[in-house]
């Protein structure tokens, strides 16, 4: 978006308070959603919970196509539709809620750097595992991705998406990596996150920020998703403080709410639903 | 990508004083306050032909062929190399490797910045010995930030922006690549850069290249601002000794800072961040300056009379080539050719061998 358009959006956002009927759209929890999309959706849900903003989760098979940027999740607030964590954080900030106001400039720079680290390594590794590892693709991804659609549309859509992701992997140099190298990268990333977290409750000590939401989204999904092998979740389980961090955020922000249609239910169902 | 290769190359050069600890010694060795500048006799051997000759001569030390250090990546690699004592001259692009930067050491060929750094680390050249665990984690995070936010704009400035590409990048690379690859490789690198930008940043709602360009330049400027805030007033990112992160940042920033492009919006933004400019200048003066004798002070006793003779030969050759060029230009049959000389303003000695390049 150009600067003018963005300023205009911010002004529109600031005009109204957060409504009660805000909705977050993602793909179908039980059958369709994949590892990376679930991680992103959970991160946004965690962020909104941390900001104390109510949102209900709506599952639609065509969520990806409804989204303005083609990526899930997206939120529908009042008259506006915003997708992906970065723009959602800015949108929420324009409405007057922010988690990172208390940080100084250096800490904000650090926070942004760590968010890029998670996006660069964890998200790319998840995409690689889902779309470039042949066994996983054949047994998990293709059946799940096209499940709401009849044959042959389901195969066509999933092949199209696979081709697109593989092109992107090739452009950034991940196509030549083996699964072991990708898992090693995940391990390196988790080590960095674990070292940064240390013994603190959150990454920036006392208050959670969007970085905590993002890390929670990815790590919780990795820990609770059953794939062909457990190697990915084993890499995360090696770091005790990261698993404790996930448990802490789950208990604090997800289990204290109603059971119907809340984020807690969707988080818990992730454990059972992402099976073959 | 290539920006990290500058980090890896630099890892091989320089002295052993900054953070390098051989495993047998205890932690008592304190690094020297002012690292002596590293020499690079092979800077004189920047031409393809003589570069090949140099390569043949010095197989025993880790050497990097890094496209003469023009592309963002090779400088960081070169810098780290220099800091940590390995003798790393830079020469022309190897005709065997389309992939730069590339480190050739005793017939081992390693071609990506991260792998080059790992290789150097295994050879016991490590700039991060004194960092705490958290600082190590920060290094990884900031490198990811650079690759996500700054790299697309860098690629765009070098390879996609038509004026920059045609007047600076393409002749520069083509002059270092032996014929006939020089007709094909720069175009291929340009297409790959555009592809990468569009695939990683070009999804909806950005539907045209101009919108993508606007977004990536905004991200790059924000990234530069973040780096500037992180650096603050200190000399390097983690105190007074340089580390891997400094090398990576230098590798990304130095080409933007120093190369004279026709279209320079990123450079103008960078020049307003005075602490980053000072950072680049410091590293350039410390680690990329020719010494008087032309030898690396890190004790390269093997860089002996052979090397001196070779450099003299190369100098003579370059003078001859210059004379031939002059004759050619003055000759009435040939139309006057435009010389694209590159003004790297780092220092007199450094710019003169490079200025003798003529495409």
UniProtKB/TrEMBL annotation, chain A:
Name any GO cellular component annotation: SAM complex
Q: Which SUPFAM superfamilies match?
A: GST C-terminal domain-like (SSF47616)
Protein location: Mitochondrion outer membrane
Primary localization class, coarse: mitochondrion
Tree of life domain:
Eukaryota
Q: What CDD domains is this protein classified in? A: GST_C_Metaxin2 (cd03211), GST_N_Metaxin2 (cd03079)
Q: Which UniProt keywords apply?
A: Acetylation, Membrane, Mitochondrion, Mitochondrion outer membrane, Protein transport, Transport
Q: Which GO terms describe its biological process?
A: protein transport
Which Pfam family name is an example for this entry? GST_C_6
- What residue stretches are annotated with the Metaxin glutathione S-transferase domain? 187-249
Signal sequence annotation: none
Q: Which InterPro entries match?
A: Glutathione-S-Trfase_C_sf, Glutathione_S-Trfase, Metaxin_GST, Mito_Protein_Transport_Metaxin, Sam37/metaxin_N
Q: Where's the Mitochondrial outer membrane transport complex Sam37/metaxin N-terminal domain?
A: 41-161
Similarity remark: Belongs to the metaxin family.
What is this protein's function?
Answer: Involved in transport of proteins into the mitochondrion.
Q: How does it assemble?
A: Interacts with MTX1/metaxin-1. Associates with the mitochondrial contact site and cristae organizing system (MICOS) complex, composed of at least MICOS10/MIC10, CHCHD3/MIC19, CHCHD6/MIC25, APOOL/MIC27, IMMT/MIC60, APOO/MIC23/MIC26 and QIL1/MIC13. This complex was also known under the names MINOS or MitOS complex. The MICOS complex associates with mitochondrial outer membrane proteins SAMM50, MTX1 and MTX2 (together described as components of the mitochondrial outer membrane sorting assembly machinery (SAM) complex) and DNAJC11, mitochondrial inner membrane protein TMEM11 and with HSPA9.
Question: Per its record, how is this protein called by name?
Answer: Metaxin-2
Species name: Gallus gallus
